[in-house]
Amino acid sequence: MVDPNDPVVLADDSVIAGLDYWRELPIKQQPAWPDADAVARASAQIASFPPLVFAGEVDILRERLARAASGEAFLLQGGDCAETFAGATADQIRNRVKTLLQMAVVLTYGASMPVIKMGRMAGQFAKPRSSDTETRGDVTLPAYRGDIVNGYDFTPESRRADPARLVEGYHTAASTLNLIRAFTQGGFADLREVHSWNKGFASNPANHRYEQLARDIDKAIRFMEAAGADFDELKRVEFYTGHEGLLMDYERPMTRIDSRTGTPYNTSSHFLWIGERTRDLDGAHVDFLSRVRNPIGVKLGPTTTPETMQKLIDKLDPNREPGRLTFITRMGAGKIRDALPPLLEAIQKTDARPLWVTDPMHGNGITTPNGYKTRRFDDVVDEVKGFFEAHREVGTHPGGIHVELTGDDVTECLGGSEQLDEAALATRYESLCDPRLNHMQSLELAFLVAEELAK
Ligand SMILES: O=C[C@H](O)[C@H](O)COP(=O)(O)O
Ligand SMILES: C=C(OP(=O)(O)O)C(=O)O
């Protein structure tokens, strides 16, 4: 039995109270690994690999998120529902980064507000599922839990949880992050490249609107350059990573002791969130993530009560540290206007000031008669509007948006100005789990959010 205050001796001999107490607690959504020794070997190997992100970067992000929580910045968080190993190609990573940069420009320009850019990238490999199994015809197999656990192909071999995937997950995250860093630090993300981010995407109304905005930005930059401004600072952008902190056999060995402060940081990504299915107050995920220094997000669905919210705050942010806690609401378009205001009102009566972010995707899932999991773009837009309305009503800050998106022209969500219909879903549905906004729908959403922010 582990005592929550017992010191835990880590591989590097640092001693941290309670870091492994989660092992004593109920835990959800973990794979049924067939070979415990192989998992232990894979975890030990990961523990010996270098960190993917550094504690100093994590601290800067916390400061940035604190600004968003107080209404001085806005968080844009987006990327695949489930990253795949095969999808970690230069083209796909670049398209996602370009899409996020374009959205960030639309938001920054439209709302005159700094935008914190964060990819659901370089680690979003593990998925919680509604059911442990999937049945097709008369065959039942383990559900696909993300590439870091098992394969998507519907065969017993592929669906078997394979610990070697943990190590592959680390390497895929490392190469993805390497490319992200090259794109965002090496000149590609320079604001003077604002036009080139639009290149390669199919012509559509959102792209045209973007081109117009890019021309305005260009003009402003040329004017400032002529006036002697030094734009070297524009060459690099801060870009952070985040994923669901779900798979403990990956997250625990990626947690290291910061040599500066002697405290634990999860070095798999800058930001981690706890999902709607694993945010039990007495569960393993909340306990473990309460003990790392990274900024932490928690998904809040429509049944969240003010009492639960308060307990999550006390557990995850006992010191009320600015930027530490983000609530990501995913209520559903039909529920947000009723479900969110009571939470916002309750928080106003406390000393807590979390960052509020809307996830307009996860409460709006539907399945079409032809069997596709999808979302209506109109519902996504409606939830975003409901989020802003609720904050305006209560007087709190709408601080960010969290979306599942891709830079590719997939057909996974219904609607948008291309008016994708049910038949179109069959043409390019590529997500292995939930449907993502395509490039155009993502840009359209950014324009809408910019308008809401500017109101
Ligand atoms: O992304 C979120 C969840 O992993 C996903 O919605 C679960 O989908 P399922 O209900 O098909 O398991
Ligand atoms: C599983 C997810 O969301 P939620 O926990 O809100 O269902 C997700 O964001 O991938």
UniProtKB/TrEMBL annotation:
Phosphoenolpyruvate binds at residues 120, 276-277, 299, 330. Binds 1 divalent cation per subunit. The enzyme is active with manganese, cobalt or cadmium ions. Pathway: Metabolic intermediate biosynthesis; chorismate biosynthesis; chorismate from D-erythrose 4-phosphate and phosphoenolpyruvate: step 1/7. It is an enzyme of class 2 (transferase). It catalyses: D-erythrose 4-phosphate + phosphoenolpyruvate + H2O = 7-phospho-2-dehydro-3-deoxy-D-arabino-heptonate + phosphate. One of its GO terms (biological process) is amino acid biosynthetic process. Its EC number is 2.5.1.54. Keywords: Amino-acid biosynthesis, Aromatic amino acid biosynthesis, Cadmium, Cobalt, Manganese, Transferase. Signal peptide: none annotated. Mn(2+) binds at residues 81, 362, 404, 434. GO terms for molecular function: 3-deoxy-7-phosphoheptulonate synthase activity. It holds the Pfam family DAHP_synth_2. InterPro entries: Aldolase_TIM, DAHP_synth_2. Its cofactor is Mn(2+); Co(2+); Cd(2+). Belongs to the class-II DAHP synthase family. This is Phospho-2-dehydro-3-deoxyheptonate aldolase.
